[in-house]
Structures are given as structure tokens and as C-alpha cells.
Amino acid sequence: MKVLKFGGTSVGSPQRMKDVCKLITEDGQQKLVVLSAMSGTTNSLVEIAQYLYGGNRNGADDVINRLRAKYYAHVPELLEKKANQDKVQKFLEEKFAYLQSFKAAGFSEIEEKAILAQGELISTFMVTAYLQEQGIKAALLPALDFMKTDPDAEPDMVFISKHAEKALADAPGMQIYITQGFICRNADGNIDNLQRGGSDYTASILGAAIKAEEIQIWTDIDGMHNNDPRVVKGTKPVRHLHFEEAAELAYFGAKILHPTCIQPAKAACIPVRLLNTMEPSAPGTLIDNNAEPGRIAAVAAKENITAIKIKSSRMLLAHGFLRKVFEIFETYRTSIDMICTSEVGVSMSIDNTRNLNEIVAELKKYGTVTVDEGMCIICVVGDMEWENLGFESRALDALADIPVRMISYGGSNYNISFLIRESDKTAALQRLSDVLFNGKK
Ligand code: ADP
Ligand code: ASP
Ligand code: MG
User: Fold this and answer.
1) Are 41 and 299 in contact (CB under 8 A)?
2) Closest CA relative to residue 35, chosen from 60, 8, 58, 14
3) Ligand 1 pocket check: which of 256, 302, 432 to mutate, most ligand atoms within 8 Å of Cβ?
4) Which atom of ligand 2 approaches the CA of 37 most closely?
5) pTM more than 0.90
């Protein structure tokens, strides 16, 4: 069986939902389909929670009422039969009464997570009702019955495997199984989620859990592009990526894929295909364990990066210095993205600055500390095997006119990363695209 995930844009309106249903039923094959909330819904639910945290009941009610009106209008657009409309209408009424029931007093993360889960619960109910109205044998499998995280907030693969298989077995003979992306239960049994954009992760986890033949991520663009199509002109889809290349790109900002989503598929050796809902016959991007030798595949950028440099004469010929530095970051649960060292100094980049002041204060015990904010990591991904000639120099040449704060190469066989100013990002991405992919000098 294949596992298919459709994002918020792909189920963003009743018409889009119908298009998705056509797409998943056309070939008559059995599928497990993971859906996001309709686009914009999770943001509205976040807003409701923010108002409740702030004690603003009226603010929350305004958002709830707007959302309710929008969803009620979708019902007659999606469904024809009165009985089906009534069924979905009743479900929506329950859901919106539930959203309304949260009190600002004592509002905590537990309630917030329950609110955030409603978008996927609604979209999947609507799509299942539509499939059934069309005479398709479709079952809605509640993700909260099998998607579970352990005390480290990692997916509990043993539990998920066992319970997802059971949910499938309990609804035998269906053509389409629909389930919610993003939402899960945590180790305490409370409703939780896999972080924003986490529906991709659900699909990958489920694909691994049920040993799917393929995981497909469907969105509104043809595959992973070789540069960010939102900021760069002349980008093209990359037709094939190694798991490691895709993971680097996803982590460093190619929004088409959630960074966590590669790991379960890679571990279970299940190919991932990125496909376009608007153009289903386009080839998309295949991600698997095969590397294409001698090629630069793509570029991505991650913003909001802070660089920290620590210079210390004590580092000269000393051992244990790096451990002390890293321990400080560990204490403050801050992960380091890039690192460069010289004999007397270390530069590191982080994206989580919640504990920056504390970290800097501790680092100062060991040397002189400099902080550069508003930085951006540019990650060039491809066959960067160190014995290959010329690849790193091509990327460096392209950036000849841009001030580069750090360069990291050799950490893996698949990437070279540059730390530059955020204000230079667009120019750098365009330049890399022109030189690496479009043959300009
Ligand atoms: P969905 O709701 O389907 O998950 P997202 O909005 O989360 O959709 O992600 C898809 C978007 O990511 C695309 O519309 C595209 O603009 C953007 N994107 C960013 N970088 C890339 C890239 N390198 N290749 C393709 N798309 C990208
Ligand atoms: N609905 C969730 C979000 O907007 C999850 C997802 O779309 O993947 O973040
Ligand atoms: Mg997404």
C-alpha cells in the first residue's frame, strides 16, 4: 500500500478536496491518505489559543465565529445529499461548540494542543464524507488511536506500527483509508502534535510503520526545486535526490518538506516522492538511497541565524576546550547548526536564541565572545565527496561578491554551507542559481 499526504493547500477549498478525491481514487488502488487541515485553519487555531492565553475571550470568539461561518459555507459546496450535509453540519457544530468551551482561566499547553488538533479532525471528516457520497469505500482512521510519541517526544514506532496495522485491519476491504496528519498523543496520553508542518512527518512515520511501498507528499508545486521558487527566478524541479540531500535541504529551508520527515522513510528504506496536486502527471521528485555522482542538486537558505564566535588563547594546544563550549549549549538546550574552528577560536551558528544571553555570559568565562545577528545559512547540496574536484570552488566563485562569515565543508558528503548576512540572501540565492544551474559565469 502507498501512503499519500496532501497539504493544506491541496485541501484548501471544497473544490480542491474534490480534486484530491478524484486523484486518489482514479487508479482504483488501495491507499492510506494523510491530510492536513485546510490551509489557514491551523493559523486561526493558533490565534484562538493566543487570545485565550492572553485572557481575551472576545478575541478568541471573533476568530471562532469567522472560522465557523467559513466552514458552514463549505458544506453545501462539498456535498450534494441533504443527509450527508446534515451529518457534516452536525459534526462541525460539535467541533465549534468544543472550541467555544475553552476558558481563558487556567488555559495551558494541554488545552492549546487540543485546539490545534481540530483542523485536521475537521478536514478528514469532510473528505471522508465526500468520498462516501461518491460511492467510494472509504474509512476514517483516527490518528489519535495510533500516532503516539514517547517521553522524549519521539514517535513510538512499536506502538504506532501495532496500532496502525490494527486500525487498518479493523476496517477491512476499504479502497481509501483517510487519517489526520500532524496530530498525535504524547506519552501522557494527552493530545499533542508533531510541530507545524508536521503532516509530512505523519506520512513518513506511517509509511515506515506499515512498511508502505512508497510515501508520496503532494503539494502545490512540481517537486523539490533546485532553489527557493519563492525568491529566485529560473528555478527548476530536481527529479532525484538522495535521502541525505533531501534532509539537508529540508532542514535548511526548502519548505516543501518538513525536515523531520526524511528519517523514518530512510530508516525503513521507503522511497519518498514529492508530487504536484495541480499537475498530477508531472514527474515530481523521487527521494531514495541512491546518490547521483558528480552533480550539485540544489540550494536552500535558512534565516534568523545568529553566529557566536569565541576566541581564546587558552584554546591553543589545549584539549577539552570544545567540550566545555558544547556543554554550555547543551545546558541551555540549544543546538548548533554550523561550526568552524581555528587554532584560537570557534564560530558557531544557532537559530534558537531563547537563551542567548545566558550562553554568551557563560562563554565569556573562556574567552572573548562576539555575536552577529540577522544571519542566514546558504546550503548547497549535491555530490560533495571530498575527492571530487571543483564543486566547492564553483559555489565559492558564485559568492565572490558576497561577504561570507563562515564556511562549512566536509561534515558530510552532501553539502557545503555558507553563513552570510540575511540582507544578502536573495542576491546569493540568485547568483548560485545562475552560476550552478543556469550556466552563467
Ligand atoms: P503544504 O500545505 O502542501 O504542506 P507548504 O506550504 O507547507 O505546503 O509547502 C510547499 C511550499 O514550499 C511550496 O508552495 C513552495 O513555494 C515552497 N518551497 C520552498 N522551497 C522550495 C523548494 N526548494 N522546492 C519546492 N518548493 C519550495
Ligand atoms: N496543519 C498543520 C500546520 O499548518 C500541519 C501541516 O499542515 O502539515 O502546521
Ligand atoms: Mg507543509
Assistant:
1) no
2) 8
3) 256
4) 1
5) yes
Q: CA–CA separation, 217 vs 117, rounded Å?
A: 20
DSSP secondary structure, 187-242, as one string: TTS-EEES-TTTHHHHHHHHHHHTT-SEEEEEESSSS-BSS-TTT-TT--B-SEEE
**Burial (CB count within 10 angstroms: exposed 0-12, middle 13-18, buried 19+), residue 1:** middle
Q: What is the mean pLDDT of each run of 10 residues along the chain (441 residues)?
A: 96 97 96 98 98 95 97 98 98 98 93 98 98 98 98 96 98 97 97 96 97 96 93 94 93 88 94 95 94 90 96 73 92 95 91 96 93 97 84 90 94 91 97 93 83
Ligand nearest to the CA of 119: 2
SS3 44: helix
- Closest Cα to residue 198, out of 128, 263, 244, 267? 263
Assigned C-alpha cell, 362: 557563560
Output the CA 220–ligand 1 centroid distance in Å. 7
87: its cell numbers:
451529518
DSSP string for residues in 359-408:
HHHHHTTTSEEEEEEEEEEEEEEE---TTS-SHHHHHHHHTTTS-EEEEE
Per-residue pLDDT reduced to its tens digit, 12-63: 999 999 999 999 999 999 999 999 999 999 999 999 999 999 999 999 999 9
Dihedral angle, C-alpha 417, 418, 423, 426, nearest 10 °: -50
Pocket perturbation via mutation, ligand 1, pick of 16, 182, 255 by most ligand atoms within 8 A of CB: 255
Grid cell for residue 129: 464524507
- Per the DSSP assignment, residues forming a β-bridge with 404 are 420
**Which DSSP string do the residues of 239-290 spell out, in sequence order?**
SEEEHHHHHHHHHTT-TTS-GGGHHHHHHTT--EEEEETTSTTS--EEEES-
Q: Pick from 202, 116, 125, 117: which is nearest to 157 by CA?
A: 202
Residues within 6 Å of ligand 2 by CB: 7-8, 36-37, 42, 119, 181-182, 196-199
Cell numbers linked to 147: 500516532
Question: What one-character DSSP code corresponds to residue 345?
Answer: E
| φ/ψ of residue 30, rounded to 5 | -70, 140
- Residue whose CA is at the smallest distance from ligand 1 atom 9: 256
Handedness of CA 107, 109, 111, 113 (dihedral sign): positive
